[in-house]
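Sample intake sheet
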Amino acid sequence: MKKFLRIATVLAGAAAALAVIFFGSGYLWSLRDRNAEPGLPETAVLTPDEAVAPGEDCRAAVEFELPVCRRLVRAEIEPPPGMVAAGPVEVTERWGWSRRTYRCQAVLRAVAPAGEREGGGRLELELSPPSGTGENPVLSVPVPSVRIEYPERIAESELALAGAVTSEQTRSISPWWWLTALVLIPAGWLVWRKFRSGAAAPPIPVWEAALNALAELRRELAGRRVSPEYGFARLTDLVRGYLEQRFKLPATTRTTPEFLADLDRGTGGFPAAERPALKRFMMAADLVKFARATPDPALLEQAIDSAEHLVRSTVVRPDEAEDPELNGGLK
């Protein structure tokens, strides 16, 4: 899992770096064109452009480009005579490397009687200044008038009128937001996992785990929470498990004679000075287990002392300190 997280973090960082390079270079290149004219069309495009009935809608649209170092600040429409704006100007953006295309569209509704109308409206576009400071230039695009005609049949319903024009605008999500999300989402996920799991505690060496388990067994026996028979069986399991992890001896899967034979052959590097005491301990354990002998509490206490002495006398040597298998807890 940690390897996967590292790979995901590296990939997210690489993608973010590439995005910064791509869009950053485009922004720097666009500074060359910051003083260029935006190239507005001569008039807005009306759809439909022939005639509409009173109460019907048509759309006025304008499309133009700006370098990415500049932006559209505001777009408002003054409708042609006989029409009202049926809502705010909708603004959408398409991003390129160094330029972005704006499309401004307004819905116009015919509210006057049929007939031709003189004059037209206009679409006002407020842009950011070329140098980044100073007054915002306001440009105007003419909106042509449209002929209003009565339809052959008029529906029996009232004509809906538009509300007041507002400066609210609808914009698409820019690549900078996608870039921010690309960086923040993996980082937030990693922080959340770190907060949830907490700092991982270092592994407890096997001898420390064994001493902790022996101390807990001693407390259970003193508090009479376990019987002497169970306490002795638990003690032998702890010692066998410790020997198996510490010296790679098959202590939990061999009988006592098989285990002692391996011990005499020097398997696992168990200290020779501790072998006699360990043999006495293992044979005493078999006596309790197979002969159903009731262990004397005083002898059981001595057996725990012997087990603790065995563990302390076999703490890992400096030349074994790099063995990762010795750093795990006792099973």
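Comment: The chain has seven helices and ten strands. Strands lie at 45-47, 51-52, 57-67, 72-78, 83-85, 90-95, 99-110, 121-127, 138-143, 147-148.
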